[in-house]
Amino acid sequence: MSDQTSLIAKIKAGACVGAVLGDVDLSGCDLSGVDLTEARLSGANLEGANLSGATLRATMFDGANLRNANLTGADLEFAVLGAADVSGANFSDANLQRSNLVGTKGHGTIFSGAKFYYSRPGNADFEGANFSGADITRAIFRKANLKNANLANTTGDANYDRANLEGVQQ
Predict the structure, then answer these.
(1) The domain spanning residue 109 has which CATH number?
(2) Would you say 166 and 147 are in contact if contact means Cβ atoms under 8 Å apart?
(3) pTM of the full predicted structure?
(4) In a structure prediction context, what are the per-residue pLDDT tens digits for the chain, which is 170 residues long?
(5) Domain, as residue range, for 90
């Protein structure tokens, strides 16, 4: 059994809650519904991984590669995604309340129906991202790049101090 297969089995068994898993390669893996609460996945490669419905509360993804990952319906409350690359990922209906997205790159990322209450996506680069139907109440998009983003049907008031809103759809 490979190290990756063994690790995936441990994760699916719930044995990695709070674990330090930095720089691990879980690209393309099916981790749907897993519980990685408070785990440290700093610098991890999760490109194309399926994390739909996963519990990722207070999980550290700083500097991680989550390009094209599926995080539909995932619980990321208090998660740290600072400096992560989430371009092309799907966060539809995800819970991103109180999460840290400072400096996150998310070109073309889907956040439809996501909950952003009091999240911090400042200095993030969300060019062409889709926030349609998201709850952005008290989200802080300070200095964020939202060029050509879709903010149609969002609910709540957000802080857009010095954000790039060129071409935003509302």
Answers:
(1) 2.160.20.80
(2) yes
(3) 0.97
(4) 578 899 999 999 999 999 999 899 999 999 999 999 999 999 999 999 999 999 999 999 999 999 999 999 999 999 999 999 999 999 999 999 999 999 999 999 999 999 999 999 999 999 999 999 999 999 999 999 999 999 999 999 999 999 999 999 99
(5) 1-170
